Give the backbone structure.
Amino acid sequence: MDKRPIGVFDSGLGGLSAVKAILKYLPNEDIIYFGDTGRVPYGTRSEKTIELYAREDIAFLEKFDCKLIMAACGTVSSVAKNAISKVKEPFVEVVTPASKAAVKATRNKRIGIMGTSATINSGSYIKAIEKLDPDIEVSGVSCPMLVSLVENNWIDDDDKIAVEIVKRYVAPLIKNDVDTIILGCTHFPHLAPVISKVVGDGVRLIDTGYEAVMEAKAILADQDMLNASDRQGTAGYYISDKTQNFSHIAKTLLGMDISDQANFVDLNSFELD
Ligand code: DGL
């Protein structure tokens, strides 16, 4: 057994979808979450910048002696190949687990991907799905505005603007008759009720945060690294900009108040080794 924390990072608050799954399915684990709220979004940036940000995020979490690091970010998972290849700890990204789940879920072999521009341009999900089943037809749409909707808490399924934006983004996927959609950015599971309302119950939505946590659970169990103590795990939240509405939004996304556990990290004073 290993009592060290699981480190989770994202460009902002989207990765809380993975934290939510850890709290539910790995309740004894300690968590260190880093949300780069000062530099979100990542998904519209160049590969070079995303690589640099990912290196810094990982280096920050490594200071906590994490037993596993999770990139709860579709953009980093898709683009920051160099930064990822250098991680020493067991590492989980979101593309592979979500692709596996989608391949299992589809009945008509038509899968849709919703992601950031960087994720869709990288073709990461298409490549991962092709490897698993080359007969599956995959179509992807970049949905950059959905990141802002989540970061601003416009996530209710009766929010007319959120519904209209989602309608416009998913139209090509509906046209392609997909029966499964990967919410390829960890921000998007927070919009699942809106997306579901638009695409209908018949379309299965794959939550990247949840699938990554299931993968982490399997790795930790396999290596006998789960925290087997019977106390409730603790969580520390670190953000690179204490945006005014952080606590309120985090409360909506996680269903609990974490304002006491939120810490500000000044990335300017943080140096890479
Ligand atoms: N939540 C992230 C992702 O999964 C990043 C969104 C962004 O920063 O653009 O892609």
The pocket of D-glutamic acid is lined by residues 10-12, 14, 40-43, 73-75, 116, 119, 147, 185-187 (CB under 6 Å). The beta strands are 6-10, 31-35, 68-71, 91-92, 110-115, 137-142, 180-183, 204-207, 235-239, 262-264. The CA atoms of residues 68 and 217 lie 10 Å apart.
